[in-house]
Each structure stands twice: as structure tokens, then as C-alpha cells.
Amino acid sequence: MTDTTINDASVDTAQVVVSSRGYWATVARRVRRDPVTLFFGAVVLLIILSAVFAPLLAPADPYKASMILRLKPLGTEGHLLGTDETGRDMLSRLLYGGRLSLFMGIMPVLYALVIGGALGIIAGFVGGATNMAIMRTMDVFYAFPSVLLAIAISGALGAGIGNAVLSLTLVFIPPLARVAESVTTQVRKLDYVEAARASGAGSLTIIRVHVLANVLGSIFIYATSLISVSIILASGLSFLGLGVKPPEPEWGLMLNTLRQAIYVNPTIAALPGVAIFITSLSFNLLSDGLRSAMDVRI
Amino acid sequence: MLAYIIRRILYVIPISLGVTIIAFALVHIAPGDPLNAVVGADAPAEVVEKLKRDYGFDQPLPFQYARWLGRALTGDLGNSVVNNQPVAASLAIAVPNTLMLAITATLIGFVLGACLGGLAGYFQGTWIDKIATGFGVTGVSVPHYWLGIVLVIIFAVEFNVLPAMGMGPGGSAGWEWNWTHLRHLVLPAITLSVIPCGIITRTVRATVAEILSQEFVQALHAKGLLHGRVMLHIIKNAAPTVLAVMGLQLGYLLGGSILVETVFNWPGTGYLLNDAIFRRDIPTLQGTILVLAMFFVVLNLAVDILQTAVDPRMRRS
Q: Family per UniProt (chain A) (predicted)?
């Protein structure tokens, strides 16, 4: 990585800020040359945009039921992707469903990124008893398989979007804290951080300038890979009847309510799962590509 | 090594205590009076009073916890709110069913994942690698509850070759080792195996690739060892990592089987949990979570010790 920055004519190697831009330029160049990552990055963007603009894109009202139009197959006139068990337009529900599914998949990871990252940096930077207290508490949460922990907490709290987001946040805090802690501990011992401290930099300055720069890359990449898991888990919670309540459109819940239709119209019954699958696969491949472009090892 | 193992075993104690605290807290984070979580709303007043004293809901939380823990240690996990049966009794039936499903799925995932990952790592950059890697990423990205539904649609609805639900003919819960019962295991086990298969494929590929890049492999080739013998060395080096991942996956499946068990009406812990959530039966939820988490803790311990035993590098440190 360093040799590319030095060879780059536009970079003044004497300045830390400029050479770090050189790193990002390298990352961007690597991503541009990786068609798989570009493609799935575009798919992710498309999914997010279609969820955001669902009201403009949806051909019908996602809540409007119809007794005579129940479980119509794909390609029915006016209902491109057919209709569900109460005759609501599938395409509109899938578009609207993306809003809740993405929200419930991404928000827990974002919250956990902030909370887990902060906890990990504090634990790694302060060390000693603080580290013990924080990281051993994280170990307790690690003693639960992630799905089980999410189901336990939302099961006790009861159904609801907020409860599902809360339980998933708790699931993702420990792994992110662990990554942040291990990177911070490594960085803290580096010579140049010692040098910065010796030349009078305070703790906050060291965290802001040196620790964050190193930690953010690692936990950001790790967090993007968690989004895929989070989307599957969030929809899974709704599939179990936790999380989103009917009649809200959400992929996991739609998959659940359409289970009764697998003998009548199996294609329609499987559609919401296809949406979850494509979304999770795209996030996974995007994060894989970003990881190799940023050359981060976790 | 012995010192490490003893330390590792002792470490289980604080972790287990932490797990019991979280399990205990579940009753108290449930909305409403914790007593409502323990008895049905229609329970007679004297039963409510007796339970209040039994559970000590009038006492401070640490006392309640100690009391609950003491009962849990003797195998008393409370009674179900729905049918008043001991939770421990329902678990005694459900846990073996889940274990059977999870172990079968882990074995399928391990065999497939190790083969695919090994091939991908050995033939890096070739089309074999691309297919295996693609398979791996698909495995970790597919929502397995959906895959279960798709498999039911294909094999039970369209072709009608495998049963869609339950553990035996006519929805019977008992298990026997015969073909009719094994047929019921096929779809749920395959569905559940997809995630470990993907993860093991990815791990094995990365491990094999890393080992191949080490100098000792070149030295082995240079001294004239046949490919098969070099492979043996690679397997020996990869084994500890792969074993660890496999052990952890089994633990994840014990907890993660809930969605698959729901899809297939498999009478295991997941089904129990799902039912408990649906009926807001908090004691059953709490007991099941506690037992599954403890399984996971013990499994983690076993994996760590086994890894130390298998890997001479760890034995020395």
C-alpha cells in the first residue's frame, strides 16, 4: 500500500492527511477494477433506492386487499408479480417491504457500530480493569448463539419493530466491540503513537487522529458484512411473529403469511424470500469486495 | 497445557453465571408484572399468592436471582404457564430432537464444506475455486427459513417424494431408526446445513490458501514429496481451525434451528421456543434459552480443549 502512495505523483508523502487520501484512492481504483463488487454495489444501491422511492414506484396501494384477486400468478394484468393471500399487489408490497426490511437490517448494525466501536476503543485504549470489565461482559453475550440471543430478547419483550431492532443491536455490539478492542490495543502499542504521546498529544487527540483512523476501516468492513446477517435475522424475527406486525409489508412477515399458499401458488409464496436472498447476497459480496480492496484482515 | 485447560475450565464459571443472569433477566424485561409472566391471567388468587411467595417476587432482585439459580441448578426450571407441565420435562423431549437435527446438519455441512473449501483453496483462481467460493457465499447469504420453504415446494409439493412436516408419519413425535423416519430428517437437515456448509467452505478455503503460501509447503515439494503426501501435511495444519469452526457451528445450529424447526414442524427446542413466544409462556422461553446457552458454553469449552490437544503449537504455549 505504501509503495503505491509514494509512486503516486500527486501525493506529498510528507503530509499524513494527503497520504491517507492516497490510500482511499488506491481502494477506489481497486474497486473500479473489480466487476463483481461494482455489480453488487449497484444492486445494493438499486435495492435501497427502490425502497426509498417505493411510493413513486409502486403500481398499487400495498394495503388494498381484494377478495376476487387472491393469489393471482405472475404476469397477471395490472399485477406484474401477482397478488398475495388477501389479493394485495405483490410488487407494491415487495417494494414497500424493502423499507422495513432494510431499516430493521441496517439500523441495528449502525447502532452497534457506534456503541460497540466506542466500547471497544475505550476498552483497548484504557486497558487494565476497564478492559476486563467491558470485554468480559461482551464474552457473556458471546456465550449465546446470535439467533438465540435475538429471539430470547425479542421474545421476552414481545413483538414490535423497536424491540426487534433493540435485540439485534445487542447481538451485534459484542463482535464489533471485539474487533475495535483488538485493533485499538495493537495501535496503542505502535511506536508512532508513543511518539505522539511523547510530543504532548492528549488521549483524545491520539484516539481521534491515530486510533480512529485505524479502527474505522476494520469495523466498517466488519459491519457491512454483518448487514447481510442482520437482514436475514430481522426478517427471521418477523417470520416468527416477532418484529413487524401485520398488515405492514415486510419480507419476513410476508414469507410467513404466504406459507399457507405453497400448495396453491408456490411461486408467489417464495417471492419475499427471493428479495431477502438477493439483498443479503449483494451486501455480502459488496462487503467481500470492499474488504479485499481495503486489504483489512479481521 | 494442563494449566491452560484448568484455566479454561475455571473461566466457564463466570461465563455461566453471566448466562444465568441474562436468562433470569428475561422474565423481568418482559412487559408487565413478572408474576403475569409466570402464571396465567386466569389463575386463582391463592395460587397467585403461593407463587408470589415461592418465587419471592416481594424480595430484592439479588435474592430472587439466588433463589431462582438454586432451583435451576437442581433441575427445576419452573412450570409452563400454558399447561403447567415442568419446563425441564418438555426440554428432555425436545433437546434430543434438536441435537439430532443439528448434528446431522453439521456433519453434512462439514463434509461438503471441507471438500469444497479444500478444492477451492488448492486450485486457487481456477473455475473450481470460483464455483466453490460462489457456493460458499450463497450458503451464508441464503435465508435458511426461505430455503426450507423452497425445498418443501420442490420435494413435497411438486414431486411429492419427501414429507413436508414433522418427525415421523402422522405427526408422531417419537423417533425410530428406520427409513420412514429418516425421510423426515432429509429436508430439515439439508436446510439447516446450508449455513455451516457456507461458513466451513469459506474457512477451509482461506486456511488452505494460507498454509499453501507458507514456505514449508515449498520445502515439502522440493524434497520430492508426492502431492498426496503434501496434502496430508496441509490437512494436519488446517485441522485445528476447521474443527474449531465446526464445533462453533454445531452450537449456533442448536440455537439457530428455531426457524427451520418452525418451517418443518420439527418437535425440538426451536418449536418449543416458537410456541412459548406465541403464547407468551416466559418460563418455557427462559428455561429453553438457558439450557441451549449452557450447551453452547460447554461446546465452546470442548472445542477449545480439543483444539489445544490437536495443535502442538498451542500445547507448547
A: Belongs to the binding-protein-dependent transport system permease family.
